[in-house]
Design goal:
about 240 residues, eight-stranded mixed sheet, 7 helices, globular
Length: about 240
């Protein structure tokens, strides 16, 4: 027996099947797939906002990561850089994905400086800045749900996931197994803090992957589950 030839075929087989195995682990199987929760419905779209390009930027029919960097965006450069490196660069190839950062009018020049800082020769054509009046920014933010707040400069380090139907996505129950075992109160996750690298790398990246899987399965006709909504959890609490 030619052991060298056998060894060569074994190595080639491993090299061929290893990426396939990785992809199988990467995408959750249909039988154990749990969609990403709808934590809030009827998020406002970007009516009354203008973009930093000639294109009309809207949330509807897109999977959007929505952020607010306020009157001094360069002071939020770490927030923007983490979002770009840990989320945008990872998902920019997915269909209908976009990052939208809401800014007050008057910040256009500083935004251009921020774009140069985070660009790093990468394709940022799916990253948009939109500009509006403070009142419109506040109204948009109020249509979102969660513990995040806008500061006096209309900024926050938290970003939000908005689906194609203007639903806010997240986790109705973000407890760990030990929290559930201890019967600790339900704690939701409605937005993601871009300063907390572990939260972005682990929780947000996983939630984005799950949402893209949902839409992929809808396109192929394999999606047969529905997301839980915030009122579903409220009804569960009332029953308990």
């Amino acid at each position: 027996m030619d052991y060298k030839k056998v060894a060569r075929y074994v190595v080639l087989g491993i090299l061929f099947f290893l990426p396939v195995t990785f992809l199988l682990f990467l995408y959750p199987a249909t039988h154990n797939y749990t969609p990403l929760d709808i934590v809030n419905e009827s998020v406002l779209d970007l009516n009354g906002f203008s973009s930093d390009s000639n294109d009309e930027i809207v949330l509807s029919d897109h999977i959007t990561v929505l952020g607010f960097l306020g009157n001094h965006p360069l002071e939020k450069s770490i927030t923007a850089s983490n979002l770009k490196e840990l989320v945008y660069d990872k998902f920019k190839g997915f269909k209908r994905f976009q990052v939208v950062i809401v800014m007050p009018f008057g910040t256009e020049d500083e935004v251009e400086s921020l774009k140069q800082e985070i660009n790093s020769y990468e394709d940022i054509r799916f990253w948009h800045f939109v500009f509006g009046e403070p009142e419109d920014i506040q109204n948009l933010f109020k249509s979102l749900k969660g513990n995040a707040v806008l500061d006096a400069n209309l900024a926050t380090d938290n970003v939000f996931i908005i689906d194609k139907d203007l639903n806010q996505r997240g986790r109705l129950d973000d407890r760990e197994d030990n929290d559930i075992a201890k019967n600790n109160p339900v704690l939701g996750l409605y937005s993601y803090n871009c300063i907390e690298v572990a939260e972005i790398k682990n929780k947000m990246s996983e939630d984005m992957r799950i949402l893209f899987t949902e839409y992929r399965q809808k396109r192929t006709g394999d999606f047969d589950s529905s997301t839980r909504r915030a009122n579903d959890l409220k009804e569960d609490d009332e029953e308990n």
